[in-house]
Design goal:
This protein is an alpha/beta fold. Helix content is 23%, strand content 29%.
């Protein structure tokens, strides 16, 4: 059965929203706000449905020509078919809807920081090989879509991809060989680029600080700088104050913000990341910054009472134990960085004795539905 609908907005995963005649919300991929579409339903539920486009009756004014032959089959991008300003508006709306509907908060993000570089920004890529094809997964599946070039990747990564396809990877790159002997056992190839190219050890520079890349590091260096600068602004540390950074990873944010403090401590569960963080502190001569290998919810240390606490948890957000720990530490201000507006909004409700002072969105991953947030909380007096 064919339904005709008008698209009214965007969902959290990049799909678009419309209403069926019976009142149900329908989610449609590769649509744009303002489209008038003929659709067919692929999945039906009591109060919602999913659909695919049969025909575009009237295209949205926000539609643009796609510039990647693998889009939209490849699941790497969500928004290559709409204008970038429309993408930014969709992301900002997503953040503010979460703050209002999930968090019940009056706080709003009034802007989204971006570098202006929508392509060629990714310094890392994970390619999948299924025994026949090398590329990225189709959206919501493990089917490999062949890729010979990705517009999101930095130039040296695309060159490496070309070399791999042409069987020059053994000679030019320290990669695990791609084998066609076991087609039932797909393998992944990870490529990473730093300021010194693809040769290990990889390094990256952020505002005068040099980091050896080991473990997690933001894939968009330019946008990461915007995010870290905002976190530093929110923290507003002085030399007589103390910073604690939970979920600190390899210490990038701890060092970037903690250089302003009299003392800083990063807490991280992964021992390899802690070792890398300590190496990065030594590399940048920041002897007043320490790192502790511990769970964010259970650690005990000699650190004095923190004036500021930074949290940058995984997508699932803070555990209840971590929230209790933060409330016990009672910092005067908290800087919360999140890659998921929904879990951010949920967690902010748990800090009842804090006020959300400011929220800023950052477009860390242009042409995808993902959006990063940074917010400042101040303890109520």
């Amino acid at each position: 059965m064919i339904h005709t609908v008008t698209v009214t907005g965007y969902g959290s995963g990049g799909e678009c929203l419309a209403r069926l005649d019976d009142g149900r919300v329908v989610f449609i991929r590769n649509a744009a706000r303002g489209d008038v579409l003929e659709i067919t339903l692929t999945h039906e539920f009591a109060r919602s449905a999913r659909a695919e486009i049969v025909r575009i009756q009237e295209p949205s004014p926000y539609r643009v020509e796609t510039d990647c032959p693998a889009y939209p089959e490849c699941g790497g991008c969500d928004f290559r078919h709409i204008a970038y300003e429309e993408e930014l508006d969709a992301k900002l709306t997503r953040v503010n809807d979460a703050l209002e509907r999930i968090g019940g908060l009056p706080a709003r993000a009034d802007k989204i920081l971006r570098t202006g570089q929508t392509d060629g920004y990714r310094n890392k890529a994970v390619f999948h090989f299924d025994g026949t094809s090398l590329g990225f997964y189709r959206s919501r599946s493990h089917e490999v879509i062949p890729i010979s070039r990705c517009p999101l990747l930095k130039g040296d990564l695309n060159k490496a991809l070309c070399d791999i396809i042409n069987n020059n990877y053994k000679k030019n790159y320290a990669l695990s060989p791609v084998s066609t002997d076991s087609p039932q056992q797909p393998c992944d190839i990870t490529l990473r680029s730093g300021r010194n190219g693809l040769d290990p050890p990889l390094e990256e520079e952020l505002d005068g600080l040099v980091f050896q890349i080991s473990g997690f590091f933001q894939v968009n260096t330019g946008a990461a700088l915007l995010l870290y600068q905002k976190a530093r602004e929110y923290a507003a540390l002085s030399k007589n104050e103390t910073l604690i950074d939970l979920y600190c990873g390899v210490g990038t944010l701890t060092l970037f913000v903690g250089r302003d403090a009299g003392y800083a401590l990063g807490v991280e569960l992964d021992p390899d990341a802690v070792n890398a963080a300590r190496d990065n502190a030594r590399r940048n001569n920041l002897s007043h910054i320490d790192f502790l290998n511990a769970d964010a919810a259970k650690w005990e240390a000699y650190a004095p009472h923190p004036d500021c606490l930074i949290v940058d948890p995984p997508r699932k957000g803070l555990s209840q134990g971590a929230v209790r720990k933060i409330l016990k530490l009672a910092p005067s201000r908290i800087v919360y960085i999140s890659c998921d507006p929904a879990t951010l909004a949920r967690d902010l409700r748990l800090f009842g004795n804090y006020t959300v002072m400011d929220v800023c969105a950052v477009d860390m991953f242009p042409r995808t539905a993902n959006v990063e947030c940074c917010c400042l909380l101040a303890r109520d007096e």
